[in-house]
Amino acid sequence: MKREKFGSRLGFILISAGCAIGLGNVWRFPYITGQYGGAAFVLIYLFFLVILGLPIMVMEFSVGRASQVSAALSFDRLEPKGTKWHWYKYGAMAGNYLLMMFYTTIGGWMLLYFVKMAAGKFEGLNAEEIAGEFGALTAQPVLMTVCMVIVVALCFGICSQGLQKGVEKITKVMMLLLLALMIVLAVRSATLKGAGEGLRFYLYPDFSKVKEAGLFDVVFAAMGQAFFTLSLGIGAIAIFGSYIDKKRTLTGEAVCVTVLDTCVALVAGLIIFPACFAFGVNPDSGPSLIFITLPNIFNSMGGGRIWGTLFFLCMFFAAASTIIAVFENIISFAMDLTGCSRKKSVLINLIAISLLSLPCILGFNLWSGFQPLGEGKNVLDLEDFLVSNNLLPIGSLIYLLFCTSKIGWGWKNFTKEANTGEGIHFPKWARMYVSYILPLVVLFIFIQGYWSMFHK
């Protein structure tokens, strides 16, 4: 079966960015930026994004383009005879499925809140009642299941149309609309009365806050965010490398994707901080920011129903772009391993993902007594922990070692693939860094993630 290809370079960049751009850009990045010193933290974060995330993204793209298959077979094709790098394909596939086991539920929440905000369901509610709306949602497994299945069916339906006619065509429109709507919302937020204080808090480098929080904690937070924001290590990015030609170098393409991901995260802060300061609200992190804090702000804002509707449309696009990108990876697993058609893979995985997403939903209600990571932690937290704190760093370490070691694909093969075409070349002087120092940094992030989880 002939490998599908993207119809345009823009499509490749937007879809790859869509995979990287997730809800963490919105509900985590602004919060930790404010917590660790505003612009001072952003500068540290950008530094680590370049030296941590960028090289691993180039490696994932290179493995994908050289192998012309998904992570289900890419190591099999490129590894030296007699080696066992291909064993990691099970980890990569597990990572994609685990991610979708909770991300589809959150996508369903976004869709429901978009509909409710557009219908004016939050108008006239006070702060406690808005908080109660989210609590009522998580207490209804049937409603959450319906929303999840709609999102799963919609996104798989897009993927079923093929790479160019489905995934590329729809994701390009969604990503361009997402960027446009976020800019409009940022302008509106910045023009609110009292927004200036929020802009100062977010954009003015306050190095005293870095000192207060502790330099080590700030550096680790910046490293962690830079590492996890691009969803590296489970082959979710590598698949798009298998769909592009050799006209452009992969370092240049990775730079474009990284810049786009960073811009979305920064603009999210420009939406959230001015609005929170304008209405005297603490910018929380996590679901409470999106589903409780911001609906309260929209309720207090002139034309809030319109702005709230646009915001949740943005959030749905951010979630759906990631879901579509990862679904494309999951569909490719079955196609590469069994040679089945795209339609058959879609149908099987639609049923599988719908069933696998149920534990996350039930963890909020019927299975709420199951708290695997301690008090207050549910199934979603467990699934997120397995992906974010385990498979992403372990997978990134494997891609690093595979592309740089003599017993793997090797530095020569990696750089030859990465530097084929026009554009920015992967620097030769970086070999010592990515071969010996970067793996130790990734290992440190992995160990520190466990330490932070269990020593709070």
Supply the number of helical segments: 21
Query: Mind describing the biggest β-sheet?
Result: none
- Beta-strand residue percentage: under 5%
| Beta strand count | 0
H/E element sequence: HHHHHHHHHHHHHHHHHHHHH
Rg over CA atoms: 21 Å
Structural class based on helices, strands and sheet pairing = mainly alpha
Q: How far apart are the first and last residues' alpha carbons, in Å?
A: 51 Å
- The average pLDDT value, as a whole number, equals 91
Instruction: Note the overall shape.
Output: globular
- Runs in which pLDDT lies below 50 for 5 or more consecutive residues are none
Helix content: over 70%
In brief:
The protein is mainly alpha-helical and 456 residues long. Helix content is 74%, strand content 0%.
Description of the molecule:
By secondary structure, the protein is mostly helical. The protein contains 21 helices and no strands. It has helices at 9-20, 24-27, 29-35, 39-67, 74-78, 89-118, 127-138, 141-160, 163-190, 195-203, 207-213, 215-228, 238-241, 250-278, 287-300, 304-338, 342-356, 358-362, 379-404, 411-418, 431-454. Helix 1 (9-20) packs across helix 9, helix 8 (141-160) crosses helix 16 and helix 15 (287-300) runs antiparallel to helix 16 (304-338). The N and C termini lie far apart (51 Å). 52% of the residues are buried. The mean pLDDT is 91. Belongs to the sodium:neurotransmitter symporter (SNF) (TC 2.A.22) family. This is Transporter. The chain crosses the membrane at residues 38-58, 94-115, 142-163, 175-195, 215-243, 255-281, 306-327, 347-370, 390-411, 432-451. Keywords: Membrane, Symport, Transmembrane, Transmembrane helix, Transport.
